[in-house]
Design brief:
The protein is of the alpha/beta class and 332 residues long. The protein is built from 13 helices and eleven strands. It has a five-stranded parallel sheet. Strands 3-4 form a two-stranded antiparallel sheet. α11 packs across α12. The structure holds adenosine-5'-triphosphate (ATP) and magnesium ion.
Length: 332
């Protein structure tokens, strides 16, 4: 049996995507040092998984890994969660409880959604980072801690500093190495392997034998923008496994949430192939040939129901070339 994902080390994580390779190379460096790390990525891109992997590959691997989300929490609760409390410290505190800093001593503490932390939480965390000590609520005894901090955020901390929502001093304390985790829609090279691995696991769990994915079902999966990233991919594959009654995943088994904008609407018949549907160039400022090509590609893509295989066939180009056009990577 493969190792459960939360036990994975950085070197267990593989990718076919260049930006993700860079991210994993930095993660491997981060694991070998004690430098503070900020993991920046959209929801579901694998920030928690990567924080875990950095811990698992580090010298702290045999010590605790604690994840803590400090957003949307009252100040008293937050303090007691971070630093713990003594019995009787406040109404309802019936026993002494250790906080996250104490629990993660010698190990790693993941501060999740760090950009959403209240000003008080920011002051308290800065104090521990500067002095390496804290007190439980209701106690005067100073406790020291040797915790490695990793932060996760889905928005730029520098931007939050600029907006006056995040302390600059804390930002400089936390921001040793920023690892940018690209969204899944920019890692399409990874999709086939990720889908295959998820499908294998979910078919095993459902006791089904699934041997293939129909090419049109695969096209649907490849064309979808995955707003929920790897988490959504995992749920989608689980659902298609449930719907599949034979050995092959068919297009109708691939279902995306109706409330999120799917990039696979029913394909419309391709009636026009002009970038200017009425044959008019009025209002189009970029009259270069490259600009016209870019508009034409977009136009055919939309007309083809955003199905990349169909678009590439209609345009008479390869899928890889189409992908470059869609990413705007074609030289102008
Ligand atoms: N490289 C990967 N291979 C397979 N599954 C992955 C990978 N990265 C993440 N996942 C899975 O995707 C899901 C989301 O990952 P994770 O919780 O780490 O994302 P996140 O960025 O922390 O999300 P959030 O912003 O909501 O906290 C998890 O089930 C995780 O196991
Ligand atoms: Mg997370």
């Amino acid at each position: 049996m493969p190792r459960p994902l939360f036990r994975a080390k950085v070197e267990d994580l593989t990718t076919a995507n260049e930006a993700m390779k860079r991210c994993l190379r930095l993660a491997a460096l981060a694991a070998k040092s004690e430098v503070p790390v900020v993991l920046l990525g959209e929801t579901g891109t694998g920030k928690t998984l990567l924080a875990h992997a950095i811990h698992n590959s580090s010298a702290r691997a045999n010590k605790p890994f604690i994840a803590f989300n400090a957003s949307a929490m009252s100040d008293t609760l937050l303090e007691s969660q971070l630093f713990g409390h003594e019995r009787g410290a406040f109404t309802g505190a019936q026993q002494t409880v250790k906080g996250k800093f104490e629990l993660s001593n010698d190990g790693t503490l993941l501060l999740d959604e760090i950009s959403e932390m209240s000003p008080l939480a920011q002051v308290k965390i800065l104090h521990v980072l500067e002095y390496g000590e804290f007190e439980r609520l209701g106690s005067e005894q100073m406790l020291t801690c040797n915790t490695r901090i990793i932060c996760a955020t889905n928005c730029s901390l520098r931007e939050r500093v600029r907006e006056g929502k995040f302390r600059e001093d804390l930002y400089h304390r936390l921001n040793g190495l920023t690892l940018l985790i690209p969204p899944l829609r920019e890692r399409i090279e990874e999709l086939p392997a990720l889908i295959a691995a998820e499908l294998k696991a979910s078919a095993f769990n459902e006791g089904k034998t699934i041997t293939a994915i129909h090419p049109e079902a695969m096209d649907k999966l490849l064309a979808y923008p995955w707003p929920g990233n790897l988490r959504e991919l995992s749920h989608t594959v689980r659902t298609m496994t449930l719907f599949c009654e034979g050995r092959v995943i068919l297009p109708e088994h691939v279902i995306f949430p109706p409330d999120l904008k799917s990039s696979s609407p029913p394909p419309a018949p391709v009636t026009e192939t002009s970038p200017w549907p009425n044959g008019q160039a009025d209002g189009v400022r970029d009259l270069s040939l490259a600009g016209a090509v870019a508009r034409h590609v977009r136009f055919v893509y939309d007309q083809a129901g955003r199905n990349q295989r169909r678009t590439a066939r209609l345009l008479g180009i390869s899928r890889a070339t189409l992908a470059r056009h869609l990413r705007g990577k074609v030289q102008k």
